[in-house]
Amino acid sequence: MKTARTALLVAGLLLVGLPLLWVLVASLKPSLSVISDPWGLPMPPRWANYGEAWTEARISSGFFNSLAATVGTLAILLPVGSMAAYVFARYSFRLSGPLYALMLGGMMFPIFLVIVPLFILMRQLSLLNSLPGLILVYVAFSLSFTVFVMRGFFEVIPEELAEAARMDGAGHASVFWRIMFPLSRPGLTVAGIFNAIGLWNEYGLALVLLQKPEVRTLPLAVADLSQTQQYQADFGALFAALVIVMIPLLVAYALLRHRLHEAMLAGAVKG
Amino acid sequence: MNGKAARGRFIASFLAPAFALYGIFVLWPLVQAFQISLYQWRGTSDVVRWRGLENYRELATDKVVAEAVGNNLYMLGVGGLLIFALALLFSHAVLANSRLSRAFESIALFPQVASTVVVALLWQFMFHPQFGPIPLLQKSMGLGEFESGWLATPSVALPAVTVAFVWFATGFYILLFTAGLRQIPGEVNEAATLDGCQGWRRFASVTWPLLWSIRRTAVTYLVITVMNTFALVYLMTKGAPDRRTEVMLTYLYELAFTNSEWGSASALAVVNFLLVMALAFGVRLLFRRDPTAART
């Protein structure tokens, strides 16, 4: 029984780990030996693949565009989402229920349901091929989840803290900005990381809304790279590009694995 | 001090930014999606013509739609069975809580965190006819080879894409089933053991029924994920060869942005949405009775 379990776990580790390891190894090989010696180790490792992927292949511009899109989205999303979540968590008013249901409705349907009208709208607003335009769309489509998560965090902050500030004559808004928003940092971390991973990886919306190469985000840049004729032979650089996409994700995942597991399960088990 | 009015103004001003963005970029396009699906609208011209349900009627007889829905359902059925079998097996192994099991738990979810772009390209290379490990293994084991590679051979392209999907998705279900198994009280398992109920029998008559709500969540999630698959297929095969890996959303993308058939594309989007809703509703019906509730 115990040996069977050990064998199973080892098999699982290899099934998930080997393909990832293979990418890493191939990213350090000259392109020719990727094909001629597929099982060989990269001796000596060819670090130049990373340089080539980074400079020649628009991966660097993709990287910075993705960074701008992710950071820009979070910078708007977290305060805007928190403000709404706070009101839903701590204030009762007539339309509270229906408005909250409407906001959560956004989690119910796939982005592709609205992709055509969204494309038309963005074209009318001259926001195609624009990172600020993409950021606005990203914020809008991340709000449902963010409001849902942040509401849970605002609900458990003790009322006495706000009470004390109100005694000192602070208004509703200043109680939020001075007390509640800073206190919700654990929630902001969970919502931030969760959204950041999704945004860093986002493909469908970016594919439709960004067509000019200079504004394309990292997933698009890497996908383009794999389809350009010139690089179809330069496998070393292509594998290096894949590793470049994965590194920030690996770091985020390693740092916040337990939080992430909890957040994923919370959404699933409640739903 | 006018406290009540100030409170109202505060609520409105704090909700306004979120609802403005949400209204413009989510709700308004959502309403329009249904509307556009009733028109003939070529993206290349400004002529918009009322068509009623004609777009839907066309989709109903479109062979590509049938193929795509079939492929989605193949991934749901075959992929789903594989994912569930693997997830159940591995979640039991993970429960042991050894160093090895923790190592596995920590890596199992990574494919899900890595972007679908990475997963798609990774598996494109795994199946690469020149240097892909899978064709190489296949050849070295004397199992022959597919001349143009797995992803270009009609009979195995869809299974190959499904393998990539299983590799991507299984981690989440392992996490889910592990959480479910941890919720089963120790006394229940002890009582079963005392009654001489162990191994496969304990799994079938105790564990499986108790995982009821987790199974329902898992199936619902799976339905939504599979029916909304786009990037994985689009990047691995673009629906080729001969539409054998086409799924609903890759065809939708083709209708909308290659053919500029905005009306038909929106109709297909609505069909996809309704199909997901119907399947999710079916799952609820299938799991409507808690098998443990009746036995108290």
Q: How would you portray this structure in words?
A:
The complex is a heterodimer of chains A (271) and B (296). Chain A has 271 residues and is mostly helical. In chain A, 77% of the residues lie in helices and 0% in strands. Chain A is built from 14 helices and no strands. The longest helix of chain A is centred in the last third of the chain and has 36 residues, at 235-270. The radius of gyration of chain A is 23 Å and the shape is globular. The two termini of chain A are 35 Å apart. The mean pLDDT of chain A is 89. Chain B has 14 helices and two strands; from the N terminus they run αββααααααααααααα. Chain B has a single domain (71-290), classed as MetI-like (MetI-like fold). Chain B has helices at 3-36, 54-61, 63-94, 99-108, 110-113, 116-126, 133-140, 154-183, 186-194, 199-210, 212-227, 231-236, 248-258, 262-286, and strands spanning 39-41, 48-50. With 296 residues, chain B is mainly alpha-helical. In chain B, helix 3 (63-94) packs across helix 8 (154-183), helix 11 packs antiparallel against helix 14 (262-286) and helix 13 (248-258) packs antiparallel against helix 14. Chains A and B meet through helix 1, helix 4, helix 5, helix 6 and helix 7 of A and helix 1, helix 3, helix 4, helix 5 and helix 6 of B.
